[in-house]
Design brief:
Blueprint: E1 5-7, H1 23-29, H2 35-46, H3 53-75, E2 82-83, H4 93-98, E3 102-104, E4 127-128, H5 147-164, H6 172-178, H7 192-201, H8 222-225, E5 234-237, H9 243-250, E6 255-259, H10 264-267, E7 269-271, E8 273-274, E9 284-293, E10 300-305, E11 317-321, E12 338-341
The structure holds 2-acetamido-2-deoxy-beta-D-glucopyranose (2 copies).
Amino acid sequence: MASMIKFQCICLAVLFALGAMTNQAMSRRLPDASISEKHKQWMARYGRVYKDQEEERQRLKIFKDNVEYIESSNRAANKPYKLGVNEFADLTNEEFKLRNKFKSHSRLSTTRSSFKYENVADVPPIMDWRMEGAVTPVKNQEQCGCCWAFSAVASMEGIVQLKTGNLISLSEQELVDCDTNGGDHGCNGGLMDNAFKFIKQNQGLTTEANYPYQGTQGSCNTSAAANPAATITGYEDVPANNETALLMAVANQPVSVAIDAGGSDFQFYSSGVFTGACGTNLDHGVTAVGYGVDINDGTNYWLVKNSWGTGWGEEGYIRMQRYIDAPEGLCGIAMEASYPTA
Ligand SMILES: *[C@@H]1O[C@H](CO)[C@@H](O)[C@H](O)[C@H]1NC(C)=O
Ligand SMILES: *[C@@H]1O[C@H](CO)[C@@H](O)[C@H](O)[C@H]1NC(C)=O
């Protein structure tokens, strides 16, 4: 019973950073550059073009405020994570959140689904599904609010690899274009559980190569969709607000999770174990692909694959603090977790 929350997802501007230097390298290279030179270099790096001088002046001011915020946050002694001047650096946090149009509906049903990992005894102390070959390279949803499709596909890629031994990159675009009758809305939001239902009904999903990502919604290519490369038998919801239950699931396969990704520190997250601040206004779908303990300070974390390219976070991933006082988990990570079955 998916609660009917739609994750329109924070969109990304087009990433022109392939092979570009890291944020850290960029700031090292520019120790004395004035803020407007920094902004110009940043614009070139991310291919940002403003419509006129006035807009450039406004964006420069926002960029400056953000750089100051990032630098002061990075000096704060009590923050174990670092922020970086990434491609969201000319957006106010309000604008960043607006990309993330949250739609909430009342719960369809309050019945609990079965949870096959309920009584798992053997949970390893650390897990990284990348090391097991169950995670494809980080993808980029760009300016389309379809994180729900990326989240669902990543957890499906995981279970398919675990069942068949084959890691196959699967098509988010098929979900964006074709999964339109079950409550999902392409670039305007959707739910991972609805995506799993569609995939089951459609008898699978085709490959990324056969139905490549476009970053916009188009009409369904039925011939590509009629050529599935892998399938699932359904999905289960992880019992809500229970990080122990989530651990049991993630110990066994990559799991789709919803989080509140609207905060400034999430916007500029660059490295380390993220400890907030964030709320529980779920607006983004991502995939938990492991968990561990930070070697420097012993903080427990979830390893989370995002869909904002490799320029954000730790090469596209974020480590989020695990086992906080609130049962919802950090940024609500334990509220709406689910996984496909195969
Ligand atoms: C539909 O997908 C097939 C690949 O299966 C491709 O050859 C064809 O060009 C696509 N059609 C459209 C209209 O994009
Ligand atoms: C959390 O989940 C675990 C594993 O399913 C279960 O044993 C435990 O009772 C749950 N805790 C609560 C408070 O529901």
